[in-house]
Amino acid sequence: MQTGDAPDRQSRATLGGREVALILLTVAALLLVVNQLFNLRLFGIVLLDGRYLNILATLFLAGAFLVFDLRGRRMQPAGLLDWVLAALTLGSGGYLAATAMQNVNEGWEFAAPPQAQWVAFLFAALVLEGTRRAGGLVLAIIVTLLAFYPSFAGYVPAPFSGFQSTLSETFSYHVYSSESIFGIPMKAFGGVVIGFIIFGAVLQQTGGGAFFNDLALGLVGRYRGGAAKVSIFGSGFMGSMSGSVISNVLTTGVVSIPAMRRTGFSARTAAATEACASTGGVLMPPIMGATAFVMASFLSMPYAEIALAAAIPSALFYFALFAQIDAYAARRGLRGLERSEVPRLRETLRKGWPYVLVFGLLIFMMVVLRQETAAPFYSVLLLLVINQFMPGHRMTLRKLADIVLGIGTSLAELTAVILGIGLIVGAFSATGLAGTLVNELLFIAGDNVFVLLLMGAATAFVFGMGMTATACYIFLAIVLAPALEAGGLDRLAVHLFILYWGMVSYITPPVALGAYAAASLAGTSPMRAGFEAMRLGSIIYLVPFLFVLNPSLIGNAGATEVFVAVSCAFLGVGLIGMGLQGYVICLGPLAGRGQYLLRTMLAMGGFFIAMPAMPFAGVGFGTTAALGLALAALPLLVAWRSKSQHLTEVRA
């Protein structure tokens, strides 16, 4: 999924019929959203939630057929078939909206009249085609198989058998119930997600992305490995806004990867750094992409609580990545960027401080006022007002059209995928399979929480290969999360665990889509970039186990316990990063004979220090920390002696 992408240069050059239609659909949808979420009652219009979601989905799904062509290519000239499918979407979706009240009163999800059944077949087929175009063939095959699943669930062997329905009953349920296409994913999209997608698109177009990139350059650009450190900060921030690993790599990597190569980084390391930084951005507050808002709907809790819980794991990932890059640069004697390439920090802040103010408003409204739905809209309003006082980014009619096109493109793509994901939710709801699978998974694991976690990690990784992060999360939140919760694990930690492991495939061969996209920019082997990304981003495999076994790392404990757990975790992941690179920051390299043994000891020591308390494993507090310190002591002593010897030689 590539939310946040703007139209290509061709679409910016001229506004043809396709662009005009997309702008009209987007403006109509945004007016609908604002009217509904803020209860403005424009023209006296008050909509039921079901009818609101019907209209919203219809407008953006129609737009998806104008954004993607038959082969799934973005913003190509629209053909006759694309216009026909868009028209059919508006017609069938209009029928759903017009009959929404009748649907509720007469229970069409279980007993739809013949005409309504035919419309259900048509609309579901359009959703499947939209999912194929926007999400790719693999996702479309998975969604299609599961969409039809209730019609043959009775013939499937246990534990995957379920309640069976006829084909017409299956698709009537998918389209007319509030548990499938218009279920939790679409409700989250229509309520919270859409505002943050708009905020990210407007921030990019009004110069916010350039400001934060310049800020990263000013902060760390001149230090050793500065180009890579800028990539970590810049890509992390951009990924948080866009929610898409691939689009983030292709957007920021165009600048960061050549800069890394120019300052001495190998092609594969440059590609791997960008891939890891972009992957971590989707897991980083305050925005975290669309998946976190869907999670908030699943858990029925404010998004701010999820963002706060995700802050420490995200910081651990970026700290470990930063430590590895610093060790890599120190070991090879790499320098930072030249002074002429780095903007002055004071000048950057003087020109761009209003963007910080906008983010301050966003975070204040989410965390203090708990107004997640309204926060991005007020932030966008403030951003547009501030924008008029910034000459370099002042709004024009053409720039406004580009912003609307960018928003429409992003939301059309996301809607097509989310509607398809809703079919997965509906299939499990219609068959009752989710409840039976929980018991089967617990039986297979023998009530052993560690076995269940390993099964969950493997399953999330496999599904993450073929699904978007949001699709993978929703599927596993239905199937796997209840089993993990039944095993005694913290509910929020379980859902974050699933989210993290669904992202792992972006940097892990044989898929590693993020690494492969970065490799194409760096001119290196995709597989080499993928394996290097595994090493640089190795903490992403460990962090989910840390916080799911020790909820202190998501802030679910007393202040003292959280402080101790976080301190040990940061020390541990830092040592792991230094062990992987063979260089101890502030001391020196682990070189010579036995270096690989020392590096292994340092990394293993860091591993044990990072998890000093494992209540589910029956390990007492401090036991693993003591073991970790014992393992790390020798490598640290060797590095210290090496530094002392080097200083003595220099003085001599």
Automatic annotation (TrEMBL):
<dbReference type="Pfam" id="PF06808">
    <property type="entry name" value="DctM"/>
</dbReference>
<dbReference type="InterPro" id="IPR010656">
    <property type="entry name" value="DctM"/>
</dbReference>
<feature type="transmembrane region" description="Helical">
    <location>
        <begin position="403"/>
        <end position="429"/>
    </location>
</feature>
<feature type="transmembrane region" description="Helical">
    <location>
        <begin position="282"/>
        <end position="300"/>
    </location>
</feature>
<feature type="transmembrane region" description="Helical">
    <location>
        <begin position="470"/>
        <end position="486"/>
    </location>
</feature>
<feature type="transmembrane region" description="Helical">
    <location>
        <begin position="498"/>
        <end position="521"/>
    </location>
</feature>
<dbReference type="GO" id="GO:0022857">
    <property type="term" value="F:transmembrane transporter activity"/>
</dbReference>
<feature type="transmembrane region" description="Helical">
    <location>
        <begin position="441"/>
        <end position="463"/>
    </location>
</feature>
<keyword id="KW-0812">Transmembrane</keyword>
<keyword id="KW-1003">Cell membrane</keyword>
<feature type="transmembrane region" description="Helical">
    <location>
        <begin position="306"/>
        <end position="331"/>
    </location>
</feature>
<feature type="transmembrane region" description="Helical">
    <location>
        <begin position="50"/>
        <end position="68"/>
    </location>
</feature>
<feature type="domain" description="TRAP C4-dicarboxylate transport system permease DctM subunit">
    <location>
        <begin position="124"/>
        <end position="555"/>
    </location>
</feature>
<feature type="transmembrane region" description="Helical">
    <location>
        <begin position="352"/>
        <end position="369"/>
    </location>
</feature>
<feature type="transmembrane region" description="Helical">
    <location>
        <begin position="110"/>
        <end position="128"/>
    </location>
</feature>
<protein>
    <submittedName>
        <fullName>TRAP transporter, 4TM/12TM fusion protein</fullName>
    </submittedName>
</protein>
<dbReference type="InterPro" id="IPR011853">
    <property type="entry name" value="TRAP_DctM-Dct_fused"/>
</dbReference>
<keyword id="KW-1133">Transmembrane helix</keyword>
<keyword id="KW-0472">Membrane</keyword>
<feature type="transmembrane region" description="Helical">
    <location>
        <begin position="533"/>
        <end position="550"/>
    </location>
</feature>
<feature type="transmembrane region" description="Helical">
    <location>
        <begin position="80"/>
        <end position="98"/>
    </location>
</feature>
<dbReference type="GO" id="GO:0005886">
    <property type="term" value="C:plasma membrane"/>
</dbReference>
<feature type="transmembrane region" description="Helical">
    <location>
        <begin position="180"/>
        <end position="203"/>
    </location>
</feature>
<keyword id="KW-0997">Cell inner membrane</keyword>
<feature type="transmembrane region" description="Helical">
    <location>
        <begin position="562"/>
        <end position="584"/>
    </location>
</feature>
<comment type="function">
    <text>Part of the tripartite ATP-independent periplasmic (TRAP) transport system.</text>
</comment>
<feature type="transmembrane region" description="Helical">
    <location>
        <begin position="620"/>
        <end position="640"/>
    </location>
</feature>
<feature type="transmembrane region" description="Helical">
    <location>
        <begin position="20"/>
        <end position="38"/>
    </location>
</feature>
<feature type="transmembrane region" description="Helical">
    <location>
        <begin position="596"/>
        <end position="614"/>
    </location>
</feature>
<feature type="transmembrane region" description="Helical">
    <location>
        <begin position="375"/>
        <end position="391"/>
    </location>
</feature>
<keyword id="KW-0813">Transport</keyword>
<feature type="transmembrane region" description="Helical">
    <location>
        <begin position="135"/>
        <end position="160"/>
    </location>
</feature>
